[in-house]
Design brief:
This protein has 201 residues and is mainly beta. The protein contains 4 helices and 11 strands. The strands form 2 sheets. Strands 1, 4, 5, 8, 9 and 10 form a 6-stranded mixed beta sheet that branches. Strands 3-2-11-6-7 form a 5-stranded mixed beta sheet. A hairpin with a 4-residue loop joins strand 4 and strand 5. The N and C termini lie far apart (47 Å). Bound molecules: ligand MTE and molybdenum atom.
Length: 201
């Protein structure tokens, strides 16, 4: 066998439809795993999804109830701040709009929080009106733990760090409170079309 693999040398990046590729991104055909820490494995009988914070009444759904909520299947393009984009990813999950039907709140921001301690902040309007889901299937299969299973936030119109893996809840806040990567200098919103990678972009 050759000491240098042909596959590596011969690797070519596929050509992407430029109207779907945000500035500075390239098309990825695999599905990279990017996790800041170890993969948590929360048993489903201990899992629930909690909406809390600045709300009249917090609401929580155990796993079984969560699966009974109306679900949507969506096919979306995703964009990681490390510059890969992946087209036509297929997910099933509950629209955040469906969860918010149960909530009364005047607060303008939410923080998504996850098993393992990850957090990320989002303006409420960026997770409303069909823009975000809590997804539990990928490509017709239960979401793999490495990719955030049992469930992850999916906010495809923002850089993928906003799509918190192993998400367990959304906390309403009055102020925009930087989450994990935002505290390390990532942009508070993260719109890939405006190339909002870091604070000040
Ligand atoms: N809980 C948690 N969610 C996370 C992360 C993380 O480290 N922990 N990384 C974020 C980043 S930077 C990216 S690009 C995507 C990667 O998702 P993937 O591993 O399914 O590709 O998850 C995001 N959600
Ligand atoms: Mo990322």
């Amino acid at each position: 066998m050759s000491p240098v693999s042909r596959g590596f040398l011969g690797r070519r990046r596929p050509v992407a439809d430029p109207s779907r590729l945000p500035p500075g991104q390239y098309l990825e055909t695999g599905f990279p795993v990017l996790s800041a820490g170890p993969t948590p494995h929360t048993p489903l009988d201990e899992w629930n999804f909690l909406i809390s914070g600045e709300v009249d009444e917090p609401v929580s759904w155990p796993w079984k109830d969560f699966l009974e909520l109306p679900a949507e299947s969506v096919t979306v393009d995703i964009h990681c701040v490390t510059k890969w984009s992946k087209f036509d990813t297929k997910w099933k999950g509950v629209s955040v709009d469906t969860l918010f039907e149960r909530i009364n709140s005047e607060a303008a921001y939410v923080t998504a929080w996850s098993d393992g301690g990850y957090t990320t902040n989002l303006p409420r309007e960026h997770v409303s009106d069909g823009k975000a889901w809590v997804a539990y299937e990928y490509d017709g299969q239960p979401l793999h733990p490495e990719h955030g299973g049992p469930a992850r936030l999916l906010v495809p119109h923002l850089y993928f760090w906003k799509s918190a893996k192993w998400v367990r809840g959304l906390t309403f806040t009055r102020q925009d409170e930087p989450g994990f990567w935002e505290n390390y200098g990532y942009h508070n919103l993260g719109d890939p079309w405006l190339e909002q990678r870091y604070q000040g972009d």
